[in-house]
Amino acid sequence: MTTYPELLTEIEKYVRSLYASHDSEQLTYHNLQHTLDVVKASEQIGAHYQLNLHDLFIVLSAAWLHDIGYLYTTPALHVPESAVQAEKYLKNLHVEDDIIEQIKGCILATQLPQKPKNLLEEIVCDADLFHLGTADYDEKSKSLRAELELITNKKLKGSQWRENSIFFLESHQYNTDFARTLLAQGLKGNVNKLKEKQKEKEAEKMNESFVQETLPLAEGKKEKKQKDKEEDKPGRGIETMFRTTSTNHLRLSEMADSKANIMISVNSIIVSIVISVLLRRLEDNPHFILPTILFVASSLFTIVFAILATRPTVTSGMFSKDDIENKRANLLYFGNFYRMSLKDYEWGIQEVMKDKDFLYGSMTRDIYNLGLVLGRKYKMLRIAYNIFMFGFVISVLSFAIAAFFFAKD
Questions:
Q1: What is the CATH number of domain 4-233?
Q2: Cα separation of 261 and 267, whole Å?
Q3: Which of 34, 102, 236, 279 has a CA-to-CA distance to 96 between 20 and 30 Å?
Q4: Residue 370 has pLDDT above 50, yes or no
Q5: pLDDT value for 48
Q6: Is the pTM here over 0.70, yes or no?
Q7: How far apart are CA 76 and CA 135, in angstroms?
């Protein structure tokens, strides 16, 4: 039976080949890169909600296939066409019908205005418009404008485009709590930037003659302002580094939890079988007592260390004004603020966003602390696997020796 990761690999190959084989020069926004961005955002949101493999497969499949309709029909009809093409392909992969229906539901939910009906659909919808609340919005907006101009063969006025963009951003609301918490501030910031830009353009238009007379001075100020903005703007490479590192840490944490759950399940079954079956026969076979003790002990110790690997650490959940002023607090981790009031947290996060060094420092500490947690998890997990491996081998050997040398004739 084909596993979910193997199916996702096939879907990825299929989507990449579609974009490579179809004429998509006009798609400066709804292209393969956009699909990759949506898949990455889906993975990030899905990791936050700790989706199981089944649900994660549905979300990521929908993310890969949600825009392939652009390669077959007009933009207005691309969403239902994407669902149709996705169904055809998934049936060829022998994906179960109920899973296909859920994937189609996630794709159809991305049709504007979005109307998701469950968490999986909400995740895909938020991933599709993830960029609205990020620093990449301006670049993505330009790509979308260029795409519409190429498709319609009409030049779009900048003022009208900005006005429509402002209306769309102000009316948009993310569906998941995670996206709202992570992107709401960025969404608001992008709206403010567009409004400022619109005001600047209107002022330039009204005072065109004055601007023309003072062009040398105005240009100098504009260049200086632009230079200051570029200096203050976080590098995309830095943002990508933090995003990628955090995502990798979350994946490693999920893998560790999954491995621990396997150890707990397997050894719980072993202990249950030994207690229910073998213990009743020890009275007639006393030479099996020591092997049985070794077997049960190794399983119990394995379970203990597997539980220790997944057991959460409880923190104080508080920060002080002094922590913020001295840039010691990390407000990106819930354990540092879950006992604080919303007012205090909003004040703290505003202070973080005002200071680039404080923000990067918080992200650095967050990744470092995630690393410490991962180090502890994998250390406990390694001990659990070692105990299971050596305990299992020794127990089996001891059973064999007891049966061979001490069994009754």
A1: 1.10.3210.10
A2: 10
A3: 34
A4: yes
A5: 93
A6: no
A7: 27
